[in-house]
């Protein structure tokens, strides 16, 4: 296998940083709700960019690295779509104005990138020093997959954690959003806007999602550079995908099963690799178990792609004609309340649950 050229890694980081910065500046300078066409073009651009990057990867290194990137990107992209379910509920829960949702999502993506970068560094350090950590990663992914299936059929909901509740008590917060501002002066007193609570909610949610997405991709590649770039490409375009999918999200009723299969497969793959490279003294006397086969990356990519396609097609066939185009989206749910704060949040939450029940969803993914 070829080594990754340093110049290629540096050029990639610089290029991705410039792209993310340009995207952020675009959102800040032009806050708006993107049209279906605009969202579609941006999603197509980012997906094409990932495909081209993988091809460049192949040309510069070899097929092994490129295939690992594609497998990791597809897995992380699928898990990112799962994140959108919760993002929709958070937007409705806190009544984020539609024209500000692009900015909120962009900040959420940046938070996710920072958190995942930290997790990737920690994961890489652990794997380098302790190969037995794959046993833990594998068991955790299988546990997560079981939870996905167990909680399928339950309405997805967002509950404020202790950290968010404590921030509400400590921070002086205005009753209304003030554009995209975090702090304003109201009656001569500096106040935080509800935007800070939304950012904290997205940040803590991203932290939870990173707990299973990072072990999942480390089950496909041990190269930190591939892990990070796959995550970046999966998160880029997520903001536009949020607006593009819209009501389509509720039709992906088999997404949870598809993700469960993928996570369980990667979990088993990790355990098999741990057994193959075993160093734990209480397993086979601390010796490698050569009889345990390793799953080639091309087979992993084939299985992941196949599961995603089957879950998506089966979902669309199952829900064909079941959902009205007038099903309330996050904006309509948010507009059904008239104030911001704990009382309004509770009202928005109940409205969200009622809308989901009325739509007759078969359940949204519940990870962890």
Task: State Rg.
Answer: 21 Å
State the domain count: 1
Strand order of the largest sheet: 1-2
This entry's quaternary arrangement is single chain
Total count of strands: 2
What is the beta-strand fraction? under 5%
Give the proportion of residues in helices: 55-70%
Molecular structure report:
This protein is mostly helical and 368 residues long. Helix content is 67%, strand content 2%. The chain has 13 helices and two strands, in the order H-H-H-H-H-H-E-E-H-H-H-H-H-H-H. The radius of gyration is 21 Å and the shape is globular. The chain starts with 5 loop residues before the first helix and ends in a 9-residue tail after the last helix.
Any chance you could write out the topology, listing elements then pairs?
Elements (H helix, E strand, L loop, with lengths): L5 H24 L6 H25 L2 H31 L7 H29 L3 H18 L11 H9 L12 E4 L2 E4 L2 H24 L5 H12 L2 H8 L9 H22 L20 H22 L11 H6 L6 H18 L9
Antiparallel strand pairs: 1-2
Helix pairs in contact: 1-4, 2-3, 2-9, 3-7, 3-8, 3-10, 3-11, 4-7, 4-8, 5-10, 10-11
Please give a quick description of this structure.
Helices cover 67% and strands 2% of the residues. It has 13 helices and 2 strands.
């Amino acid at each position: 296998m070829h080594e990754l050229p340093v110049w290629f890694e540096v050029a990639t980081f610089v290029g991705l940083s410039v792209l993310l910065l340009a995207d952020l500046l675009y959102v800040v300078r032009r806050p708006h709700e993107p049209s279906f066409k605009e969202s579609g073009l941006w999603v197509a651009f980012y997906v094409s960019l990932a495909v081209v990057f993988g091809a460049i990867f192949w040309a510069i290194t070899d097929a092994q690295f490129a295939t690992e990137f594609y497998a990791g990107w597809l897995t992380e992209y699928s898990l990112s779509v799962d994140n959108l379910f919760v993002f929709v509920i958070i937007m409705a829960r806190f009544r984020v104005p539609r024209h500000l949702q692009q900015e909120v999502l962009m900040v959420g993506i940046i938070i996710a990138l920072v958190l995942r970068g930290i997790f990737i560094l920690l994961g890489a350090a652990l794997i380098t020093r302790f190969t037995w950590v794959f046993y833990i990663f594998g068991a955790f992914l299988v546990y997560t997959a079981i939870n996905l299936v167990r909680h399928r059929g339950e309405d997805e909901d967002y509950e404020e954690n202790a950290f968010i509740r404590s921030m509400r008590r400590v921070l002086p917060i205005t009753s209304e959003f003030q554009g995209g501002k975090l702090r304003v002066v109201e009656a001569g007193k500096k106040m935080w806007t509800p935007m800070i609570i939304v950012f904290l909610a997205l940040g803590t949610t991203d932290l939870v999602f990173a707990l299973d997405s990072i072990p999942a991709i480390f089950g496909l590649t041990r190269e930190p550079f591939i892990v990070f770039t796959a995550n970046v490409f999966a998160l880029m375009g997520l903001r536009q995908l949020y607006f593009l999918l819209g009501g389509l999200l509720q039709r992906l009723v088999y997404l949870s099963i598809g993700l469960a299969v993928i996570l369980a497969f990667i979990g088993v793959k990790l355990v098999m690799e741990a057994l193959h490279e075993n160093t734990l003294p209480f397993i086979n006397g601390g010796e490698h178990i050569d009889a345990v086969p390793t799953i080639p990356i091309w087979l992993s990519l084939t299985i992941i792609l196949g599961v995603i396609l089957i879950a998506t097609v089966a979902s669309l066939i199952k829900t064909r004609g079941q959902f009205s185009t007038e099903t309330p989206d996050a904006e309509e749910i948010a507009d059904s309340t008239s104030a911001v704060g704990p009382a309004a949040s509770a009202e928005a939450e109940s409205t969200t649950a009622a809308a989901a029940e009325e739509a007759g969803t078969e359940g949204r993914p519940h990870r962890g």
